[in-house]
Amino acid sequence: MFCFYVWGISFLIDETLCCWSGRSKCFAGWIANKTQALKATMLCGTLLSIIISCLLIFSHQLTLLKCYVLFFGLGFCSSVQALGYTFTGENNDVGHRASSLGLVSMLSLFGWVVFQPLFAWIMQFGWRGEMINGLPIYSVVNYRYALLILPLAFIVGIIFLTSSTK
Fold first, then answer.
1. What's the CA gap between 98 and 104, in Å, rounded?
2. Rounded to an integer, what distance in angstroms lies between the CA atom of residue 57 and that of residue 110?
3. CATH number of the domain to which 17 belongs
4. Global pTM value
5. Which domain covers residue 155, as residue numbers?
6. How many distinct structural domains can be found in the chain?
7. Cβ distance 9 to 67 under 8 Å?
8. Which residues of 56-86 are buried (b: 16+ CB within 10 A; e: fewer)?
9. What is the chain's mean pLDDT, rounded?
10. Residue-wise pLDDT tens digits, 118-144
11. Cα–Cα distance measured from residue 63 to residue 70, given in angstroms and rounded to the nearest whole number
12. pLDDT value at residue 17
């Protein structure tokens, strides 16, 4: 909806993000193996994700091509989150690996339990009460504030990464 309201671009572009995020996970692992720098690869991908997500959120005019490039970049850079399993395994004793990997798996799969209601709450926070056919109409500002969850989540990820031992 955000792409449609802000730039007048079809809803199909959202699928590009998901598509490239899934396909680029292998490449993120390959980069980490080639450079032998798992933590640095994750930090670099996360920092770039912050920059790209802010560009997407705060840009006022983007062409379809620029949107595709930015969504590809966000999907590609954020795919380093898959390396979190390896990172967790390397940073825990053998006796604690199963528990820590289970926790990481649970947190990554159930993050939506927190973020989906938070997104909805932020959208409602600045809503002016406008309805059409029983559906709420949100402003671009509502979307921008709610989408700030993305860069903030990436920042939390950087805090956790930089506080780890290896």
1. 10
2. 24
3. 1.20.1250.20
4. 0.82
5. 8-162
6. 1
7. yes
8. bbeeeebeeeebbebbbbbbbbbbbbbbbee
9. 82
10. 988 998 888 888 888 888 888 888 888
11. 11
12. 55
